[in-house]
Amino acid sequence: MTDIGDVIPQVTLKWNKGVNNIMIYGMGDIPVGAYDPKRLANLGISHGAMDFGGGYTYFNPQTGNELSGVVGFTYNFKNPDTQYQSGVDFHFDWGASHFFTPNIQLGMVGYALQQISDDTGPGATLGAFRSHVAGVGPQIGFMFPVGDMQGYVNIKGYKEFAAENRPQGWNTWVTFAISPAPPEPGIAKPIVRKY
Predict the structure, then answer these.
(1) In this structure, are residues 106 and 139 in contact, taking their beta carbons and an 8 Å threshold?
(2) Domain boundaries in the chain?
(3) pLDDT tens per residue, range 54-89
């Protein structure tokens, strides 16, 4: 099957003071992806969702040590095709790594997900059907220049365990991001204005 998936907009606000970094975020799912309730696998989920949370990162560039944690809650709207509404999920994601060079990081990642409210709707024939799962595994990251910007690639894999009412196994995530390069320490860049 080749088709489109759902649109997942995200907004974040971030603050930094020394080795301390704080973030708040909001994201959602706009159900425009391919979905058919008679099909076993779909690219869309056929219902909207909202996820809100925040995180903290300790990063010391002198030692190369990084420790991060993010907590969030996901609210799912009712699926109009199945009349099923999944309960609210609480999730916690963490990562711990060391930069062995300024551009290469190695470490561990993990997460835990716990559904904190029941599934509902006339389609919820299995009752509350609350779920939970946890996962842990390795990660590696690379930073590299992209013109005047900074590129970043991260690969992380999770071995899932303690699953209830959801599948478990291995999953792998690849992240590729391009962002403005951080300013060099102690060098003030002039502001150029065009009139």
Answers:
(1) yes
(2) 10-137
(3) 999 999 999 999 999 999 999 999 999 999 999 999
